[in-house]
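Example record

The entry below shows one chain as it appears in the dataset: sequence first, then structure tokens.
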Amino acid sequence: MARRDNRPSEPTGCPCGQPLPYADCCRRLHRGEADAPTAETLMRSRYAAFAVGDPDYLLRSWHRSTRPRGLRLDPAQRWTGLEVVGTDRGGLFDSTGTVEFRAHYRDGGRPGTVAERSRFVREDGRWVYLDAASS
């Protein structure tokens, strides 16, 4: 069931794929109650933000030099699964990191996949999405 603001209803399991309820996982980051400790955690929380329809979090977690002015999510697109392929750095004591992933979705009943190597940096002590790394 969709919310009045056209966002999907809140999931019970976390869309990011971690074995925690959404309320104990990515929702805390989406609400600003916690910061992502690693680049992978941030990437997973950004995927979950797409899945639950939270463009505000996506913009807040985007580096100021590459952040768009606005973001409109397609309400017909349903995110169905996330595979983390690999990570390079992005840990607790790093200042940069890369996470390679495949995000699966359905759009109008048709399946699709987004494959990306995302680059992350620390900005004011917090992990933020910078851009997609070129292959």
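Notes for this example: Strands lie at 77-89, 96-107, 110-123, 126-132. DSSP finds three helices and four strands in the chain.
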